[in-house]
Specification:
It is built from 22 helices and 14 strands. By secondary structure, the protein is an alpha/beta fold. It starts with a helix and ends in an 11-residue tail after the last helix.
């Protein structure tokens, strides 16, 4: 009745069911009985693994333990109350300094002692037996009906779940449910929703599970990151940003290059067109940095590989690409490009795509763009501003040891490559030359003593007032080649100017910070 009520109040929108442990079994049961209802299941450490857990064997232990000693088993305490020892981290993560953590822990231990006395009174052995029996029955019931579950499902599994084998169960459910993804939290316990550092909404958005209708629309369903979410992204980039200390430049309308983003337009629509560094190392720092400084959210057109369910199963961490979705990336299609421009977004476009991001040895900073002016006509249709940009710095942090050509020499690699890309959406099949190769493959790099990343946003190119002119093939091609030439010139400019930067090396930057303070802006070359 509750599900039907939600559907009647918001027809056409999915109903989200969040269930933890026993609640996950209930959510799956509802989905099995309502196969035609648009449901999204969020299952946290699901109790479907009860028959494989220690709880099953410990349940029989209760028959031989007199009261009140039935509450003395740590696993039963966790089952009933959650892992209390993890709670201080929740408060410390929300503004309590580390030195206050001892006092918080002391107060919680005192409170826990009083709470245990209450538990002795309100949780007799019969109550615990009843709760475990409920979990056993629910687990058995829903496991016999998993084949009937058609709902979109996201399983959240903790690495330190002392009650249930949640990680193994998540893998099993992903294999049994036709529309299921998993997210793994290595340092979290059974009561994931109660622990510090975990954000349910961020997780749902990152997995691509937030939607407003039956089908996911990556453009209109997107929710920009909150200030707290953005700070977490910035924090996750801490080591990379510390090691590379990015320098961001922009170009004013009069052609003057300045440090900072004063030259970046503040109103869309706009198309930012430039080069990929190795493995797209520049993307997240650039998008997050601009968003933090200006509030402008670049919406990247990304390779479909980043959104594919099967891709996640090949990655060491299934959430590896979640940050791209949380920052607004969408699969690269003409329709998504059209929608973004129609809603006046800033669209981040890499014409070289995967071929540029996974380039071979000796191909640093080469552009692998298609011959046809693919984005110019679309930009002019919406009177969008085109902003060419360039980035350099990959050769200052790593060297390629094994590239695609080296991998091809390995036995059976061609089979691995075909398996890796067999279900990927084919891109640029109508293109000629090297840009046609948009397949994904691994590379092996070796680190170097870090240098510095440099970004430059070029002089904005207006298409407003040129719509009729740019409908012509020759005019569009001319502007396309001009944009490409501008991007190449900005790359060349950065490569030359960084030679003048006295703080290009991390060693000189560390010395500067030691003298002037860690939070000062480190100088660079004179633009």
């Amino acid at each position: 009745m509750t599900v039907e009520s939600k559907i009647s109040r918001a027809p056409g929108r999915p109903v989200y069911l969040l269930g933890e442990s026993l609640g996950a079994c209930i959510a799956l049961s509802v989905a099995a009985r309502n196969r035609d209802t648009d449901l999204v299941l969020i299952l946290v450490n699901p109790g479907t693994s009860y028959h494989k857990s220690q709880l099953q064997s410990l349940a029989g232990f209760l028959d031989f333990v007199p009261e009140p000693f039935h509450l003395s088993t740590p696993r039963f305490l966790n089952f009933l109350t959650g892992n209390m020892m993890k709670m201080p981290s929740t408060f410390i993560g929300r503004g309590i300094y580390l030195e206050q953590g001892g006092q918080v822990l002391s107060e919680m231990v005192t409170s826990l002692r009083l709470s245990l006395q209450l538990l002795f009174d309100i949780l007799p052995r019969e109550t615990i037996v009843w709760k475990l029996e409920m979990l056993r029955t629910a687990s058995s019931f829903v496991n016999s009906r998993l084949h009937a579950v058609k709902a979109q499902t996201l399983v959240l599994a903790s690495g330190y779940d002392e009650l249930l084998p949640s990680h193994e169960e998540a893998q099993r459910l992903r294999g049994m449910l036709e529309n299921c993804r998993i997210r793994y939290f290595r340092d979290k316990g059974h009561t994931l929703l109660m622990e510090g550092g975990f954000d349910l909404v961020t997780t749902i958005k990152g997995a691509g599970y937030y939607r407003r209708s039956r089908q996911t629309d990556f453009v209109s369903d997107y929710l920009p990151p909150t200030p707290n979410e953005l700070e977490k992204v910035i924090d996750s980039l801490g080591i990379l940003n510390f090691a590379t200390d990015p320098v961001i430049l922009s170009t004013l309308p009069d052609g003057k290059i300045v440090r900072g983003l004063a030259g970046l337009p503040r109103e869309g629509p706009a198309v930012l067109v430039g080069n990929h560094m190795l493995m797209g190392l520049e993307s997240v720092p650039m998008v997050a940095g601009v968003l933090r400084s200006t509030g402008i959210n670049f919406r990247g057109l990304a390779h479909p590989f980043l959104f594919d369910k099967k891709t996640e199963q090949l990655m060491p961490d299934s959430s590896l690409f979640d940050v791209y979705r949380n920052l607004g990336a969408v699969p690269v299609t003409s329709l998504n490009f059209y929608k973004l421009l129609s809603e006046k977004h800033f669209v981040l476009l890499y014409p070289g795509g995967a071929r540029e991001a996974l380039h071979r040895k000796g191909e640093e900073y080469r552009l692998f763009w298609p011959e046809q002016p693919e984005f110019v006509r679309m930009a002019s249709r919406f009177k969008a501003t085109i902003i060419p940009f360039g980035v350099v710095g990959e050769d200052d942090i790593c060297d390629i040891q094994l590239d695609y050509n080296d991998l091809l020499k390995l036995p059976f690699y061609d089979i691995i490559y075909k398996e890796l890309n067999k279900d990927s959406v084919k891109l640029r099949e109508d293109s000629l030359g090297k840009v046609k190769d948009q397949g994904m493959h691994p590379i092996l790099v070796s680190p170097k003593v870090p240098g510095r990343f440099y970004f430059i946003f070029g002089k904005p190119i207006e298409t407003r007032g040129r719509e009729k002119e740019l409908r012509g093939k020759e005019s569009a091609q001319h502007l396309y080649l001009h944009v490409k030439s501008e991007a190449e010139s900005y790359i060349k400019y950065l490569k030359e100017k960084r030679e003048e930067d006295p703080y290009r090396s991390i060693l000189s930057r560390l010395l500067y910070q030691a003298v002037n303070g860690r939070n000062v802006e480190i100088p660079t070359f004179e633009p």
